[in-house]
Write a structure and sequence with these properties.
The chain is α/β, with parallel strands linked by helices. It has helices spanning about 30-40, 55-65, 85-95, 110-125, 140-150, 170-180, 200-205, 210-220, 235-245, 250-260, and strands spanning about 5, 10-15, 15-20, 45-50, 75-80, 100-105, 130-135, 155-160, 180-185, 225. Bound molecules: NADP nicotinamide-adenine-dinucleotide phosphate (NAP).
Length: about 260
């Protein structure tokens, strides 16, 4: 599994696991969640992204990591308009993840000025590794750019797949200028892969699956640090982790994937 530096010297695997919906499950589904998380850890995909917005996912992730917590890089979020509630969210995360959150992001930019003030102190005290901010909507990218320029964050999380390329215009070049890490949400278009191209076309691209082609497409764009595809399927988790070892597409390869995506 290839790794890249997200920020502050923190090396992350280029493919990790998103936990939205897939780890928002009851106790009867904990064994399945354990298998997905263990598969990612075994394959070197030790980056996990969660949020208080994702229902039970933060707790299910903590339980699935168990004694292997130290192997993982936990990226999660603060999501509330209130500083006080934000502090409570962090306290719960510290309990779940052995006293440290590796990457703490302000979710959807909610109360980012307020949260970044106290989160900075938590980072300086060593309870947080790296600070960041996320947004899913191009309509908020102007405000995201303001946060990026504030000097208060070290990474961002934004959507990127062949249907969602808005970050290419300003956000990716700005992140490169400022030296910020870029984590990609929705790298598989939230599961809108469709049946995909023929085995012969996949072979020509040098990939084993359509999902791998789409992940490698995003990883081959300049300025992208890592992807967090979500899956509840251990076989998909293993396949996604394998995509992190691909050498990458050249421009012609990327254009081929874009054409296949349009035709899917
Ligand atoms: N901050 C934000 O505002 C925000 C917003 C959205 C998402 N996110 C983060 O980004 C993560 C990923 O985004 P997402 O969940 O929306 O979408 P995604 O990762 O683009 O797509 C997930 C879907 O792809 C399928 N999938 C995964 N691997 C596959 C494979 N190898 N082959 C075929 N299908 C595969 C999954 O189904 P199976 O379970 O069947 O594999 C699932 O339905 C989230 O979990 C979350 O952590 C953040």
């Amino acid at each position: 599994m290839n790794e890249r530096i997200l920020a502050g010297g923190l090396a992350v695997p280029v493919v990790g696991l998103g936990t939205w919906q897939v780890l928002d499950v009851g106790p009867e589904c904990q064994p399945g969640a354990d298998r997905v998380v263990a598969t990612m850890l075994d394959a070197g995909g030790r980056l996990f992204d969660s949020s208080p917005m994702y229902g039970r996912a933060e707790g299910v992730l903590g339980a699935a990591l168990g004694e292997r917590r130290a192997e993982a890089i936990v990226a999660t979020k603060i999501w509330t308009p209130s500083d006080e509630d934000g502090r409570r969210q962090l306290e719960r995360q510290l309990q779940l993840y052995g006293g440290r959150v590796d990457v703490e992001q302000v979710h959807n930019l909610v109360n980012w000025r307020g949260h970044l003030r106290w989160l900075r102190e938590e980072r300086d005290a060593g309870r947080i590794g790296v600070l960041g901010a996320t947004h899913y909507s191009p309509g908020a990218f102007g405000e995201l750019a303001e946060v990026m320029r504030s000097g208060e964050i070290e990474m961002i999380q934004v959507p990127y797949n062949p249907s969602e390329r808005a970050i290419e215009a300003e956000i990716l070049p700005l992140a490169a200028d400022l030296g910020l890490g870029v984590l990609v949400m929705r790298p598989l278009g939230s599961g809108s892969l469709g049946p995909g191209p023929s085995p012969a076309e996949l072979q020509e691209l040098g990939v084993e699956s359509w999902a791998e082609a789409v992940l490698v497409w995003a990883l081959s764009a300049p300025g992208i640090t890592a992807l967090i595809p979500a899956t509840g399927d251990p076989a998909h988790a293993a396949a996604n982790a394998r995509a992190g070892s691909h050498a990458g597409f050249d421009e012609a390869g990327r254009r081929r994937v874009e054409a296949l995506w349009r035709a899917r």
